[in-house]
Design goal:
Pfam families: HTH_3 (PF01381). This is Helix-turn-helix transcriptional regulator. It comes from Fuscibacter oryzae. Keywords: DNA-binding. The chain is an all-alpha fold and 99 residues long. It has a single domain, classed as Orthogonal Bundle (434 Repressor (Amino-terminal Domain)). The protein is built from five helices and no strands. Helix 1 crosses helix 5, helix 2 crosses helix 3 and helix 2 packs across helix 4. The radius of gyration is 15 Å and the shape is globular.
Length: 99
């Protein structure tokens, strides 16, 4: 029997959050503009960008359409973030110098 699927994958959610924010800023949009174009709430966009919600395929399709980019491009950006942070044991956060 296969092991149970982990339904909350924090590194993946954080990578999606970063990719979404970068894509939105690159498109020159505010969260409000993206929410309107994607037909979702501003709060939902904020939750996605802050890594507090795991996107569904429907959400991925909506935000990709709102950004006018293919879903595959969005997923490639997420993959890029995952690969960048793969060897980073502190969850992608910068080290803080000790006093």
């Amino acid at each position: 029997m296969a092991p149970a699927m982990d339904r909350s994958n924090e590194p993946l959610v954080i990578a999606f959050a970063a990719a979404l924010r970068e894509a939105r800023l690159r498109a020159g949009m505010t969260q409000e503009e993206l929410a309107e174009r994607a037909d979702v709430s501003v709060r939902f966009i904020s939750l996605l960008e802050n890594g507090r919600r795991q996107p569904s395929l429907s959400a991925l399709a909506a935000v990709s359409a709102g950004l006018n980019i293919p879903m595959s491009m969005m997923l490639a950006a997420v993959e890029g973030h995952l690969m960048t942070n793969q060897g980073n044991t502190d969850g992608g956060k910068e080290a803080t110098p000790e006093a």
